[in-house]
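Complex record, two chains
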Amino acid sequence: MGKDFTSALRPAIVLTILFAALLGIAYPLAMTGIGQAIFPAQANGSLVRDADGQVIGSTVVGQAFTGDRYFQTRPSAAGDGYNGLSSSGSNLGPTSRDLVDRVRGDIDARRAQGVTGAIPADLVTASGSGLDPDLSPAAALAQATRIAAVRGLPVGEVRALVTALTETSVLGDPHVNVLALNRALDAAAAARGR
Amino acid sequence: MTFQGWFLILLFVGILLALTKPMGLWLHALLDGRRTPLHVVLGPVERGFYKAAGIDPTAEQGWRRYAVSMLIFNTVLLGLTYAVLRLQGVLPGNPQGLPGLSPDLAFNTAVSFTTNTNWQSYGGESTMSNLSQMLGLTIHNFLSAATGIALAFALFRGFARREAAAIGNFWADVTRVTLYLLLPLCIVYALFLIGSGVPQTLAGAVDVQTLEGARQTILLGPVASQEAIKMLGTNGGGFFNANSAHPFENPTALTNFVQMLSIFLIGFGLTWTFGKAVGNPRQGWAILAAMLVLFLAGVAITYSQEAAGNPILNQLGITGGNMEGKEVRFGIAASALFSIVTTAASCGAVNSMHDSFTALGGMIPLFNIQLGEVVVGGVGAGIYGFLLFAILAVFVAGLMVGRTPEYVGKKIESREVKLAVLAIAVLPLAILGMTALSSVLEAGLAGPLNAGPHGFSEILYAYTSAAGNNGSAFAGLTANTPFYNGLLGVAMWLGRFFVIVPMLAIAGSLAAKKYVPEGPGSFPTTGGLWVGLLVGIILVLGGLTFLPSLALGPIADHLSMIRGQLF
């Protein structure tokens, strides 16, 4: 047994060094090089810039929308909300009083904004990452009346924006990217001079 | 539940079944040490590694020597990661200027990644530098997976060889699996992920002024290269705290689907490789059938529970199932499926927060791990774990008819059965013992976020995940304390190596045995009766062991939920 130990030491140490160089250094660096060359936009975070070249977000990662002028995002448990340095869900369980109180508060807030009927679940629940970039089409449409009034746009046009930007896949649920939707909203309002 | 949801689930299983034999054939070539098309490119690398390390790949090892090689290699790797994490503050590749890790967190993390658990007591974005992610963690994702597959190969050889003293060469197995399987797949996979929106850069964070004028910091890094092996190697340790729920780790429904496929791909293939190795692929398909029965039952329960939603919240007037902790782009079906895949295989990546599942919806992931993660299971670890149950199943069948049991041409005798029971008993001992301890000690009770039975579930899930080498969590538990870091670290080590050593002893003992041809009195181990017996043994053992603990946690939680009782 003692001989087994000593004879295994050299392969263990040398292989650790070689694999560390190959898998821990060369592989990620090579992927970085290739990725940066072929997919520069995605490899650098799919950043979105405004007309002045200022970074205003990422198409992939969600950002908070809390004001009346925009489609509002889901509740978020990432830091104070949509904190890119502390992604997290609420981790509140099904019998948590904190969860039920939070959801009830958010439902009341939506009702105060004029949302009627059943509330789409995603509108009042926190996502897994706290950085969910999307809303369900139902959760976006539930806000259309409010936004149309604030922006002075016809409700039909606001609804049409949601429908046009809704992405579907057999592999997941229909969703609409909130940043893209709100930029489209700004563009629509600008086109009408609002 | 929707038609589209079930279509997704069946499409998922169908694609994997189509990939089982091709993957199994590739693995069988590696098991036999045969040449593959990749040898043209990687053959010189392999030979160079052997030469530098003084390895003779043709020198066969007995089970003791194989075990010692594996243990020493893993201990050296553990040391490397511990050192990298502690020294993070003074090493390069640290654009955020993060400090080194505390001793207990570095110990916990090093053990966690060495044992293929990838339990994360830390939040990736606020703790780990780019160099730590690459050199400290990514390397383990490869090598702990390669170790698991090598160990499965050793056991396969034990069943396949006749009157042999050796079960292969550990160094050659690990090197070949890494070079000819994991690395090439990861290169293609990582490129797919980058193209889909997963970052791959050495830069740190980007400051953003949002459309509403607020400030947001978006963290980038070498994410895709780690993400690829995290799934393929059933590791599960995420670059970010939110793991595969984070849009940068898993940006689209398609990446989510591919991530689920890649968790199961090698595990499915290994069942076929086993059948081929013992001379009858139907032996492999029978194992896969038993796994699929348990898998689909789990999916059905969790999916139906999550789709029905939390009755307490539904009463408040919301519709659309339980979306707390879930991402809109995946929805209920793809989140429920992911949770079962990741806990059936010992992956532990999550695309939704299991802590916020409904009580029974979250119980199935927990129970999957408690069954020993033998439903497909971790790469390598799943199939060798499953074969331990197969040994028990033929033993029980033998008891019923009063014959010495046989399995795939080998007599199963008291030594093998004793070792199998020893390996299987480690899991309940660690899980239940440590959960009990943490439920009475002050340091343990300080952990849970949720009150009531759900808080107990958080503790139970943590030790189950650690001992089962899964790594997923009911993440409300505050586990980054010396108490939990230490105890969970011990649970991970026990759950990995105290299963492996008896398993290798079985491999050695089987290899030495004569071949017993199948006779008219042999119990057939390919048909429906055998599949039923396997499922029964796994459920009865797991059920008897863990049902009392489930009654205190998720079942009590469920009863509270339907009564509307809050904590």
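Note: DSSP finds seven helices and six strands in chain A.
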